Each structure stands twice: as C-alpha cells, then as structure tokens.
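Dear support,

I submitted the protein below through the web form. The confirmation email said the job was done, but the results page showed an empty box. After a refresh the structure appeared. I'm attaching both so you can tell me whether what I see now is the final result or a partial one.
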Amino acid sequence: MVKESRVDVLIIGAGPSGLMCANALAGAGVDFRIIDNRPIGVAAGQADGIQPRTIEVLQSYGLADSLLKDGAQMYLCAFYNPGPDGGIERTGRAPDVTAPTARYPFKITIDQGSIESMFIESLKSQGLSVDRPMAPSSLEISEDPEELLDPSSYPVKVVLDHLGPSDTTLEQEIVYAKFVLGADGAHSWVRKTLGFTMDGEQTDYIWGVIDFVPDTDFPDIRNRAAIHSNNGSCMIIPREGDKVRFYLQMADKDVMDPETGRIDKRKVTSENLINTARKTFHPYVVNQPKEVDWCSIYIIGQRVASKFSKHERVFIAGDACHTHSPKAGQGMNASMNDTHNLAWKLAQVLRGRADISLLKTYELERQKYAKDLIDFDREFSALFSGKPRTSENQEGVTHEQFLSAFMAFGGFSSGIGVHYMPSVIVDTIHQSCAPTIIIGQRMLPQIFVRAADARPIEIQDVLPADTRFKILLFVGLLTSEQLANVRRLAEELQLPTNFLQKYGYPAEGNAQSMFDIIPITAGQKDDVNFLDLPLMFRSHWSTVLIDDTDVTGRLGGGAYKRFGIDEKAITMVIVRPDGYVGMIAPSTALESLDKYFGSFMIGRT
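What the results page shows now:
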C-alpha cells in the first residue's frame, strides 16, 4: 500500500535556496515539507561568499549573528598586474564593497555547509527537519483551470522515492501539494520535468578552485586579490580561520585529455593547482600546503531558465534557474534571494489574504534579475579571464579597465543595487515624496533614536522578514498644527473603506497580522513626547522613532533631509515583507494606497 499525504508546499532540494524557503515558511507558520537526495548536507567547498545585501536579508530572519562571528570578513581588494621584470606587482587596492549605502561594508566568506547548518539548526529549533535521502520520480500538474486558480486545491501530484541501500526494496510515497518548489540545483530534475530550457552559453574559460591553508610570502593573502599575470589569472578569497580559496585560470593542456578533448578529472589534483598558482604568483613563493580542504574544476556556463514557474503552482529557484561563474560571488546569494522573494508571497496566498496572481511577480522580478546577473557575469568573467595588457599585448585588459568595471559593478555584485521594476507590488507614482528612497529597491539602512528611551535603532532591524507590510509613517515635525493633521489621518485610517481596515488582517493562529505601523518624527529627542501620537500609531512603546542623533551625537540624524522628505507633510513608505520598498504616498493620497493593496490583496469579509 503506497503511502499518500497532503502538504501546502513541497520543497525539493535542501541547498541554500530550498533551506531559505523552508526557514521563511516555518516562520510564517506554513505547512511544508523539504526533501533532499543527499544522505547528509555539503561537507566542504562549494559556494562560500555572502554579499552585503544577503547579510541584511539573513539579519531580517535573525540569522546573521553566527555568520558575522564565524565567517571571514573581506574589506579590501588588491589588484596585481604584470611588472617590468616578468613577475606580478601590486597596482592598487580598493574597498571590496563599493556600494555607498551598504549597511555591512564587507563580504563574509564561509563554506556552504555552515550556511546549510545554520538553516537546519533554525528549523530544528522549531521541531522541523529535512526528509532525506529522498528524490522525486514523477510530477503531474492538473490541467483544470478552476483547480489551478483555487489556492485551497492540491493540483500537483509528486511521487517520491525513499532512497535506501541498493539491496532494499524501493519505498514510494505520493504527495499531493498546493505548491512545489524545485530548488534542486543546476541539473534540476524539476526543471527538466517541466520542460524548461536553460538559455545562454558555455564559455571556453576553464578554472580550478582550491581551499587550503597557505604557506606564502604574498602580502595580500588575507585580502581579496585579483591577479592578472602573463601566466593566467587568479582570484584569492580569504576564508574562515586560516584557510584561503584560490580560483585559478587553467590552460587547456593542463586539464584536457588530448584524445577526447574533454576535461580529465584525474589531472585536477591539488599539486597541479598549486603548480599553476606558483607560475601566476611569481616572484612571490607559494609552497606546497600541508592541508588541502577541497579542490575542483569548472567551465564557466552562463544560462537562465526560459521560465521560473508553471501555472504559478510549480516554481524553480537558485541554480535550477540560473548558472554563472563563481568568481563574481553571486550563486548562493542569488539563490537565497530567489526564495526570500517567493516565500512571503506563498504565505499570503495560502492564508487567503492575497490573490494567487501575486505569484506571477516571482518570475517577473527574479527572472529579470537573473538575466541582468548573467550580463554582468559575462562582462566581468571576460575581463577576469582576459590576458593583461603588456608591451607585447596591446589588446589586453588594462588595470584601469578592470578597476573601473569592478567599481561600476559594485552595486550589482553586492546585491545592494537590486531594483524591481513597476508591477502590482511596485508602484512609483509618488516617488517624488521621498526621492532617495528608491521604490523597487531595498529600504536604505538608517539609524533613528527610539522616542521612549533614546536607544539608537537601525531601521532595518524593525523590518523583520515576518510576512508583514511595514508602514513607515514619517509624521514630520510635531507642531500643534501637524499633530492635528496626524490625528485627522488616524481617524481616516479607521474608516471601514480605508486600506488599513479592508486589508488589515489581525494575527490569527500561526499567521502574523498584515500591517505594522512605525511612526518616525522629525525634531529633537528632548522635544518629542511620543504619547502625543494617536494610540493606533503607537501599538507599543518601542515603535515610535525620532530622526535625531543618539546621546553621543555620533549615530543617527539627518534622515528627513537624506531621504528628501518634507517635515511639514505626512509621508508613508510601504516596505514589503522582503524589505523592498513597494510604494510611497503622501497622507493626502490614501486612495493610491487603497488601489495599490487592492491590486493583489483580498479584502476582509
């Protein structure tokens, strides 16, 4: 008798993308299962870089602390090019993170296994775990249009195989799911089953990668370093503890089988990779390491899936829908941010609070991002893999070319510059109310002072990824006239026809409430009495913030001016559950907010 079960969301694949989704759904109280075909997670190697925006995202789930404590932090990037004596010489250094609004002005490096463990421990603390080893063997989606549009139906049937030892009888299980996520890697079974293609190209660049404890006289071994030499290119990534990672450009003759023309994995040894490094690093010495953690080889492929979802019922995320070179440090970051984008949308649809059409914005937002990422990666990889300019090679890449590309791509590579285009959840009509808070980008970091106790508060820390929309209510300078306007707004927002009442679902069971209002006043902490604000704007003493410096005079202040917000007006900044700004509106345009939420939400009955 084959076991049958039902689940709201089935996640196939427990890498960073699948685990991010599981963790977000767990926090939202959604019924899900996550399976993986590996008996255990990744032990060493693989993806290793966490970009500044991803640190912000993990912080919004309360997960960044262990990474900040255990990972290596990269602040500087050094550049080396051919010198006059045939060896390499340093031609410059620059901050590794060039995005000026980064809350964390560094990247973290830590192995993928630690990232996966962080999520698995978080799930374990909630009594949840990954079902393994298991793999899907068939997937069917109903073709009934009514069933597909009904979020309470279970239109996806998946047969799962329990992978035991080869001499045991194969045990199968049938799962009926409302939604399925394929986060099953670059060779995704889910993607192939859906018939989606990977569009793009394979490059000719062959790179080796090795994680080891180095013995060298190279002075920038603990910084990120981009080396262009006459013997090939190398990127150094400092790792946790004493480890480093080298990405090394390999010559065909070093790794190819001359008879088949294919990569011969037997030639990819740590000795070979270190010998390649020695040639690249001359005149610096790289000794044979005592300890090698992991090494591998890859050819850069740059591809994006033709579609990211089928009927908004089966989705793919992470490496299943985009592949690119590791040197730009995007893989794991793009993958986790895919499901960070999807999870809150699934939660709201499953709760019956948002229309199922909201799920169309997943492909809309993340496929465009993936295509932009591939364009960036293609350009960056070509520059990195290209020969350096020398007196003999005038066509080569100059240090200035590489450095200007490095700086220009900073916003993109850090994840800070991600910009979602206008859609039902990105409405730019009132952008002029706060010109520097870009609608469609993540909410900028900014320190405010808490009105009740003068404690400095980073605004991103009051925007947790908890499925709620945050309303940053910039109430301005609280003169008696302005307070009258604020009280009038509170009365308007309590009318049953208003968006706050129509869509303001309260907390129910495991589901959070829909809105969280965070008032932010202008003025000085000594002059503001937060109790003057209407009760509906201060649900708790801790929610009212002031745009002023802290008691040391060093932190905070200047936000109204920085954001271009009028202190005499009342401005509402709507921050989506994933931390991106969905809309800005003046208090005189409540109908715009009503239209915004009405375009994807289901009104309360």
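Response: this is the final, complete result; the empty box was a page-load delay. Residues 360-385 form the longest helix (26 residues).
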